[in-house]
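Please complete every field before forwarding. Incomplete forms are returned to the sender.

SECTION A: IDENTIFIERS
Entry label: holo-278
Bound molecule: manganese (II) ion
Molecule representation: SMILES string

SECTION B: INPUTS
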Amino acid sequence: MNQTIVELLQRHELRKTAMRGEVLKIFLEAGKQAITHPELEQRLPDADRITLYRTLKAFEDKGLIHQVVDSGNATKYALCNDACTEHRHHDEHAHFHCNDCGKTICLDSITTSTIQVPRGFKVQQTHLVLEGTCNNCEN
Amino acid sequence: MNQTIVELLQRHELRKTAMRGEVLKIFLEAGKQAITHPELEQRLPDADRITLYRTLKAFEDKGLIHQVVDSGNATKYALCNDACTEHRHHDEHAHFHCNDCGKTICLDSITTSTIQVPRGFKVQQTHLVLEGTCNNCEN
DNA sequence: TAGACAAATGCAACAATATTGCAAGTTAAA
DNA sequence: TTTAACTTGCAATATTGTTGCATTTGTCTA
Ligand SMILES: [Mn+2]
Ligand SMILES: [Mn+2]
Ligand SMILES: [Zn+2]
Ligand SMILES: [Zn+2]
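SECTION C: PREDICTED COMPLEX
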């Protein structure tokens, strides 16, 4: 298990297990691209489905990945930036969902700005999802 | 079946059936609040689950309701405004999802504005989801 | 108003996604 | 090395969604 992975797990108070190492490796390789549970299953054929669910949950709880709101059916996850911790996520950026290839990517450059809401409402988090055709599918 | 409901179905080229009447009635009563499939099942205990799915699909296709992107697990739907047709939806507004009561409502007053995306990306639709505490749960 | 025809429904079967409980194995810390 | 807490794998179960097909219903036209 490479050094970056070990450090990331430790910094987020996650025990260093084989499964977590492999899953985190996949997220690091995916970079800005969000990943679904089925994709992980495919890339780790020997991994137990249920443990995968729990791994994702643990990663999310500890601020290592964030859930991506998306018009698709299956939940997607992507790597957080360094600022996210167990106590607070800082994923104030938009996501782009391509209707052609189905990929969803984090657009860190687009931050979700504060929006005026009706009286009595309190906003804790904002999700901005852009749907269309990605630069790879556009020609 | 009341007159408003009959007119709405006809305007959207939907055959007037008992099931559709009841489902549409629930949407009209819900107003700005989005509804999930399970909620419909609960409110219409005699309705067939599968037919409900197809009813929602038909309503969406014909521009009567729109799907609401949400951080929850189950898909939500809400009434469209009059401008939506079979050929095009015009649901460029934000949605508020309350983490306390779980309700999701349409915020028609907040329209999704155009956002500058990276080169090569083409945006077809924008979803803006605000998550927090609604005016009813706040105290 | 009585067919004809297309559309909608109900049921069965199945697929995909997700949660819980528990025993056994593993990790980290003392 | 021992211990305690955490993680895993498996079974069972729940939830959400899709497809095929025979039957019923709604709408249109003669
Ligand atoms: Mn992201
Ligand atoms: Mn809406
Ligand atoms: Zn694409
Ligand atoms: Zn609320």
